[in-house]
């Protein structure tokens, strides 16, 4: 098993009508052994911007701390929050700085930009940005996730329907992966509120 | 089953200089066979065997107690990280009074258990009496020993009831055969052993023993990524085996550890207040 499959992870983000949803699994494992079932992979950068990181758990935590630091500096200098597109470029630059000794994680960035237009993107571990209009996936269950999202996604879904869709896509995909699952964590973000929900999944 | 030794009968390859044959006189009957042309011969062999050898991603267990033998297994088949099936039958019914468990390569286990079933039936017909568990496990162990080193992957337990009472043997592809009271095989076996060993008593009723077996499999599926699906529990008694239960492990979790509903509502209220 490769180093990206050492801890196991699954992250997915989807775009809806003036809203977005980002979801991840909750397992932390060491190869086949499950160590924890409440590992946080998605973190808030500010009220309209979330980042989910899949891959090696130690790099997930360290990279998140670095990004929060950089964003706080930006807030002090510019006296405002970063736009999602700018943040994506920042993440891409930070990852490429370590081109020959990379952070072994794949970020999924989801945010609400100007005019409440949702923005999602994903990157590989050295910063190649992939913008998408519908959904992005990352982690050990990514192939299953692509299939499930492709089948279940519809454009312009409202927040509740988006929550149902992303939850079903996540749960059915991680049920086909030994290394991810053990519950789910979903954030649905609209211009007015952030709804955080924990999913009851198969614990095997 | 006779080992194919035709590979040993090739003639010795000639060495460059043909004249100094007196050196080679004593070696004229050395067996030799075709070798693959590769730079790393030792590594190549190991790699080829390792590629065919699937990791034993599973949890199976069996134990003897007062009322017979309890056999339990999960039902997940995995290929590396991918779950290829959640509904594999890992407890194989060799005949109405003997069960075998499957761990390792699915094809290997299914084939050799069926083969064992055939041999047991032939024994019955030839000797007008049933074969003992000891005899059946020895037949299987000898068959597997003759294929030793060829990359078979079989980690099985033979459980049954014969004239001497309940019998349980562990047989693997190395040709090992162990008699015992409690076994667990597979990547989830350490977790199953933890629960099984701490809860085991010889004097258990069938219900207590089946609950212990089910719980052990459930805990193994929770911790081990390569085990999951359905926990099947079988009991082998004096009249043969009987399937006691097949519970989906996803539902068993919430049965053992129910989620108190109040907490979920709290989370939603807190998030909405942001």
Short description:
The complex is a heterodimer of chains A (204) and B (274). Chain A is of the alpha+beta class.
List the main descriptive attributes of the protein structure presented here.
heterodimer, A: about 200 residues, alpha+beta, five-stranded antiparallel beta sheet, 4 helices, B: about 270 residues, Glutamine Phosphoribosylpyrophosphate, subunit 1, domain 1, 12 strands, about 35% helix, about 25% strand, globular, disordered C terminus
Low-confidence stretches of chain B: 14-21, 269-274
Basic shape of chain A:
globular
Low-confidence stretches of chain A: none
Please compute the radius of gyration of chain B using only Cα atoms. 25 Å
The percent range for strand residues of chain B is 15-25%
- For the secondary structure, the number of strands of chain B is 12
- Give the amount of beta strand of chain A, in percent: 25-35%
Oligomer: heterodimer
- Tell me the CATH architecture of chain B: 4-Layer Sandwich
Name the strands of the widest sheet of chain A in spatial order: 10-1-2-11-12
User: So what's the CATH class of chain B?
Assistant: Alpha Beta
* Main sheet: strands, sense, barrel of chain A: 5 strands, antiparallel
| Gyration radius of chain A, in Å | 16 Å
Mean pLDDT of chain A: 94
Mean pLDDT across all amino acids of chain B: 83
> Could you describe the largest sheet of chain B, including whether it forms a barrel?
5 strands, antiparallel
Q: What is the helix/strand order of chain B?
A: HEEEEEEHHEEEEHHEEHH
């Amino acid at each position: 098993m490769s180093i990206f499959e050492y801890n196991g992870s699954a992250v997915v983000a989807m775009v809806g009508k003036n809203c977005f949803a980002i979801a991840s699994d909750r397992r932390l494992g060491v190869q086949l052994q499950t160590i924890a079932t409440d590992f946080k992979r998605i973190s808030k950068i500010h009220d309209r911007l979330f980042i989910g990181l899949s891959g090696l758990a130690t790099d997930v935590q360290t990279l998140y701390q670095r990004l929060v630091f950089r964003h706080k500096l930006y807030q002090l200098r510019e006296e405002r929050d970063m736009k999602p597109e700018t943040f994506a470029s920042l993440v891409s630059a930070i990852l490429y700085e370590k081109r020959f000794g990379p952070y072994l994680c794949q970020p999924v960035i989801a945010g609400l930009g100007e005019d409440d237009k949702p923005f999602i993107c994903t990157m590989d571990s050295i910063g190649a940005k992939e913008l998408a209009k519908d959904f992005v996936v990352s982690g050990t269950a990514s192939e299953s996730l692509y299939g499930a999202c492709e089948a279940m996604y519809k454009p312009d879904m409202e927040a509740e329907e988006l929550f149902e869709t992303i939850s079903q896509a996540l749960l059915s995909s991680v049920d086909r992966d030994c290394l991810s699952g053990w519950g789910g964590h979903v954030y649905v973000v609209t211009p007015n509120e952030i709804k955080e929900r924990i999913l009851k999944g198969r614990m095997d | 089953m006779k080992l194919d030794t035709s590979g040993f009968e090739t003639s010795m390859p000639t060495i460059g200089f043909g004249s100094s044959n007196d050196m080679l006189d004593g070696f004229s009957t050395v067996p030799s066979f075709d070798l693959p042309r590769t730079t790393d011969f030792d590594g190549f062999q190991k790699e080829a065997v390792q590629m065919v050898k699937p990791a034993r991603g599973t949890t199976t267990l069996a134990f003897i107690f007062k009322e017979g033998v309890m056999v339990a297994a999960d039902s997940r088949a995995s290929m590396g990280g991918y779950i290829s099936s959640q509904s594999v039958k890992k407890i194989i019914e060799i005949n109405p009074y003997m069960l075998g468990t499957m761990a390792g390569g699915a094809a290997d286990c299914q084939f050799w258990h069926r083969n064992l079933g055939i041999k047991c039936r032939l024994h019955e017909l030839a000797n007008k009496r049933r074969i003992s568990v000891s005899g059946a496990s020895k037949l299987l162990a000898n068959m597997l020993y003759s294929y030793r080193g060829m990359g078979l992957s079989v980690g099985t337990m033979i459980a049954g009831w014969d004239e001497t009472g309940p019998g349980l043997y562990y047989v693997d592809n190395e040709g090992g055969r162990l008699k015992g009271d409690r076994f667990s095989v597979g990547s989830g076996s350490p977790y199953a052993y933890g629960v099984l060993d701490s809860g085991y008593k010889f004097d258990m009723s069938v219900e207590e023993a089946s609950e212990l077996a089910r719980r052990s499999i459930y805990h193994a599926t929770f911790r081990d990524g390569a085990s999951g699906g359905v926990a099947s529990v079988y009991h082998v008694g004096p009249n043969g085996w009987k399937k006691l239960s097949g519970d989906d492990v996803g539902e068993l979790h919430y049965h053992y550890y129910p989620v108190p509903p109040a907490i979920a509502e709290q989370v939603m209220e807190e998030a909405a207040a942001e």
